[in-house]
Amino acid sequence: MERLVDDYLMACRARGLARSTIQGSYGYPLRGVFLPWCQANGYVELTQLNGRSMDAFSVHLLEDGGRNGRHLEKTSVHAYVRAVRGFLNWCEQEGEAKVARPALPTLPRRVLDVLDRDEIDRLEAAAQSERDRLIIRILCDCGLRAEELCSLRPESVIRRDRQAYLNVKGKGERDRLVPLPPSLLRRIEAYIRRLRPVDTRASELFVGLRRGRFGDYEPLTPSGVLQLVARATDRAAIKKRVYTHLLRHSFITNALRSGMSPMLVARIAGHSSLRMIERVYSHLTADDAYDAMMAMLAQRERR
C-alpha cells in the first residue's frame, strides 16, 4: 500500500501539480491519515479493502479521526475522503485492483456574508495608500486570489486593441486572462509609472512600502495583503469578518447577481468547472433567481 501511495504522489507531480498542493491535498490525507488507519487495522494490501472497510474508514474520520481524539470538521473529512477516492481511482486505472470507494459525507450549505458594492467602496477609501487601495480594488473587481495578486508583474498587464487584461498565474500553473476595466487599467499604469519603486530588484508588481532589512523593497506576500485588508476593515468600521478570500467571494457573488453567465464567472475566477460555483455560492437567494428570470423575460418581450 505504501508503495502505491508513493507512486500515486509521483504521478501527481508528473501532472505538474504544485508541491504545496500535493503535500496538503494528497500527501497528508494519504500518508498521515489513510495509511496509519490501514496499518492499525491490518490492511497492508489493496485487495484487503472492501466496502465494509471503506465504510469503517469514513466512520472513523467522522467520529474520532482528529488528532489527539479531537473532532474533525465535515469539510476536513470530505477533503481526506476525496484524496483517498482519487488514489483508489488511480489504482484501478493502473490495473492494480478495483476497490470500493469510501462515501463522501454531505457538506452543509455555506452561507457567505459577502461585501456589497457600497461596502467595497468604503473599504477601498479606508486604505492608507494608493497601493493598498489599488490592491483592494483589483481583488474586488477581478476576483483574484491573494497568491495570484502577489505573483503579478508589471508585464502581466496586457493590452489588446481597446481591451486590457491581467495575465494571471492560477492554481496548477494554469494561466488565464482576467479583463481589466479601463479605470483600473489607468490606475495600475499610473502606479507603475509614479509609485512603484524603481530601485528594487523585485520583479513583482506590488512590493513593500518601505525597504526591508536587507535594504531593498521586498515583494508583497499574501500575509501582507491580509494585514492591509484588516487595517482597512477596521478604519472603515465594517463589522463583517473581512479577509482576502472574502473579496474574491464578493466579486463572484456580485457578478452572478448582475446576470453574468456562471460559465464566464468560472473562467474569470479560474475555476476549472462549475462545481465550485454551484457548491459555494448557494447563498444566492430566491430574490436573486426571481430578478434574473424577470430580466430574461423582459428582454425577450422587447424583441
Can you tell me about this structure?
With 303 residues, this protein is mainly alpha-helical. 56% of the residues lie in helices and 5% in strands. It folds into two domains: 2-93; 117-299, Orthogonal Bundle (hpI Integrase, Chain A), CATH 1.10.443. It is built from 13 helices and three strands, in the order H-H-H-H-H-H-H-E-E-E-H-H-H-H-H-H. The chain has a three-stranded antiparallel sheet with strand order 1-2-3. The longest helix has 22 residues, at 19-40. The mean pLDDT is 85.
Helix content: 55-70%
Number of helices: 13
**Mean pLDDT, nearest integer?**
85
Alpha carbon gap, first and last residue: 63 Å
Structural class: mainly alpha
Q: Using the coordinates above, name the CATH class of the largest domain.
A: Mainly Alpha
- Looking at the structure, the CATH topology of the largest domain is hpI Integrase, Chain A
Offer a concise description of the structure:
With 303 residues, the chain is mainly alpha-helical.
